[in-house]
Structures are given as C-alpha cells and as structure tokens.
Amino acid sequence: MLHFINAMMLAFGPFVVIYKATKLSEEKGLRACVFAAIGYALTQILKIFIMASCLPTATDEPLLQSTAAVSSSGSAALPSARSWSVIEEACKSLISLIEIWGVGQILSYTPSLSKFSPGTRILAVSLGLGGAESLLKYFLPIIWGARAQEFSWRWIEMGLESNVSLMGHAAFVAMVWLKSRHDLSSFSKAICWMTLVAMCIMPTIDNYLTLVHHLDSWSLLGVHGAVAVVMAVLAKIMLSSYLRQRATSQTNVGAAKKGQ
Predict the structure, then answer these.
(1) Surface-to-core class of residue 173, CB atoms within 10 Å of its CB (0-12 exposed, 13-18 middle, 19+ buried)
(2) Comparing C-alpha atoms, which of 214, 235, 40, 54 is closest to residue 125?
(3) What pLDDT, on the 0 to 100 scale, is given for residue 224?
C-alpha cells in the first residue's frame, strides 16, 4: 500500500501542487482545466477514429528494410525491424498533427480562459491536457498494479512519465499559442511549427527506438525527459521574448498617444 501511495503522489501530486501554487487557484481556473481535459479526450478520440479508418494494415506496406540481406551462404537474414512499417508510422505521424488543431481549438473556445494572462492560460490548458492523459494512461494501471504486495519500479516509472508528459504538454501548448499570434515574426513562427511537428512525431520515434534499437523503457524515459526539457526551455525563451516585445510595443504606442 505504501508504494501505491507513493506512485499515486508521484503521478498526480505535481498537478495539485502546481494548481495550488499558481494563480490558477486564486482565479478559480479549475473549470478551464476541466474543459481542456475534455477537449484533449475528444481530440484523442477523433485521432483514434481517423487512425482506425485510414491506416493501412501491417501487411499492406513493406516493412522497414523488408528486402532481406542475403548472406554469403545464400540464406536470407531477417531484418531486426520486422514489425516496424514505414508507411504506417508516417501515416500515424501525419494524423497526430491533428493535435495541433485540437489544442488550438481548446485555447480558442475554452470558457473563461481569455480572462487569464497568457502564462496562466497556457498553464491551465497544460494541466488539463496532462491531467487527462495521466488519468487515461496511468490511473487504472497504478490502481490495479501498485496495490500488489510485491514492489515494482514500473509504477514509479509511470509516475515519472506523467511528470515528463506534463512538461511536454506545457511546451506544446505554449508553441500552439505562440504560432497563433499575428504579430509574431515569421522566423519565430517557423520555429514554433518545427517544434510542434517534432513533438507530434515523437511516438513514431519511440516505436523506432523500441522496435529497431530495442531501447528499454527507462532509457526511453530518459529520451523523453531530455526532449521535454529542451522543448520547455525553448518555449519559455520564446514566450518570454514575445511577451517582452509586446509589452514594449504597447508602451511605445501609449507614449505616442500621450504625445499627440
């Protein structure tokens, strides 16, 4: 029971701490977080439906390196990536781009979200997205598995994955919000789009690393953590730069009006 409590606190505790420690609690942003979570769930349902309807089956596309290398003895050497399909993974990556649209809709239509500052707005949506994903992916497995008498590092790993995912969601939401700004420079918008596309194809990279290079779950978690940190730092730098630029512009406009 003790490691069950530890796993639950590790997976879901940061959401409560962040909510209580920021302006979201003071400004009653729970409703916005819940609407963002619902929007995330609907986006995932739509994505799964499109994947089920449009994706080719594994037998429709030659697998990666499907032309087996023939050895000197004349026998064919089976490729190590036997279950990794290039076309299927490419289609998954393209369909995953719908998440950019989904987060954009959440930012535009979540009730009472516009009253928050940009940073609080991004945080509210990030907590909603990350919380919904953690509930859908980790809550039931931890409930069913972590209560066993035998300790397993798998539940601690799930808790860490939840935290890394929250960081990634925050960077993703910030980039989606930034790219929708009309006064953002073309160069910055290009960076936003490249970052968003890179984050959308991460599941395909995961499959490649797992199926082709046989990366274990802890190493994959390390990769996720490194990518999330880089994306979060980049999003923070770009967001801070944009907000400073906008504040300076508004100050100059106000000074010009007073001068008239």
Answers:
(1) buried
(2) 40
(3) 95
